[in-house]
Amino acid sequence: CTAILFAFAHWPVRLSRYGWIVTFMTMTFAVSIWLLLLGIQRGRRLYGYFAGVAAGVGLYSYLGARICLLSLLGFFVLDGLYRRDRSILKQGIALATGVATVGFPLFCYYLIKPKALWVRTDELSIFSSHDPLGTLVENIWRHALMFHLTGGTFARDNFPGLPARKAAMVPSSDQTSTDG
Question: Rounded distance, CA 76 to CA 55, Å?
Answer without folding.
Answer: 15
